[in-house]
Amino acid sequence: MQQEAVSCRMSGAAGEPGAPGAITLEELDSMAEEQSPDAAAPSSCSRAEEEEAAAAEQERLLSYWQSVGRGHQVDVPRDMAEPIQQLTRNNQHQERESIPFTLVHRKEKFGEVLYEKRQYGKAKWACIKMQEEQYEQSICLGFMKLMKYICEQNSSGLYLGMTIPIVTLVHTNETHSEITRSVTVAYYLPELLQEQPPQPYDSDIIIEEWPPTVVYTRSFRGVTNEDSIMREINFLAELLESPELCLQNIFIVAGYTNPAAANRHNEIWFLQRP
């Protein structure tokens, strides 16, 4: 993770009127319940009727995503219809696998966790580099590409399952005053697929093995955009006793919860030097 190589939960300024943001799995939870409440119920419909109902459900979900996308200044193409439907259905019935780590140390003050030091093991990730005009657009478009890979567009032809968090590797400029446009969005491959990851059909997605990494991480709430990321980077740098032990121009933003939520959960990660 300390190298350039170092994507479930995308984040964005969905809570700010007119601001771009990201489309995520959790935004579909209530939608799925409303649109297909009888999806798991026994049916006496004919095959043709079932196919017609599935097509209608797919169209409704795509329309919903496109509506959300317009609000975030992101176009959702029609070829996302099938991955959206599949991810929505699986999201209702499967637990999301969390990236494993070992807690090394927790720094607290008056009962508040200031930051944690964690050890992450060697692992394989599906990664895609993006360079859109805005951070939120890059992570949203990058996630849609990863979403196709997760939803059967891979050498196994299988649905791979969601993991959290989705992480985004960001870089700061030479003066450390802002993040650059180039980001890497990464999806942690589930444990059962770590030994032999299915290969993506999309040549823009690369399977990378990240080395064991020590991470200093701090949780924060609210939107993730260029300004909030730099604020959190500076805040954690002030809290650390020896920030110089970490890489100075590469950081990770980890997202866990729905960006439309009022009090959503994100983390900023500092990577300890090798």
Which helices and strands occur, and which strands form pairs?
Elements: H1 29-35, H2 47-71, H3 81-93, E1 97-98, E2 102-109, E3 112-120, E4 123-130, H4 135-150, E5 163-164, E6 166-172, E7 179-188, E8 206-210, E9 213-221, H5 226-239, E10 246-255, E11 265-272
Parallel strand pairs: 1-5
Antiparallel strand pairs: 2-3, 3-9, 4-7, 4-8, 6-7, 6-10, 9-11, 10-11
Helix pairs in contact: 2-3
Main attributes of the structure:
274 residues, alpha+beta, nine-stranded antiparallel beta sheet, two-stranded parallel sheet, 5 helices, 11 strands, disordered N terminus
Query: What are the segments in which pLDDT stays under 50 over at least 5 consecutive residues?
Result: 3-26, 28-41
SSE string: HHHEEEEHEEEEEHEE
For the record, give the distance between the C-alpha atoms at the N and C termini, rounded to a whole number.
Answer: 10 Å
Side by side, the strands of the main sheet go: 2-3-9-11-10-6-7-4-8
Mean pLDDT score, rounded? 81
Please count the beta strands (DSSP E, at least 2 residues each).
Answer: 11
Rounded Rg: 19 Å
Overall helicity:
25-40%
How many separate helices?
5
Alpha-beta classification? alpha+beta
Major β-sheet annotation: 9 strands, antiparallel
- Percent in strands: 25-35%
Global geometry: globular
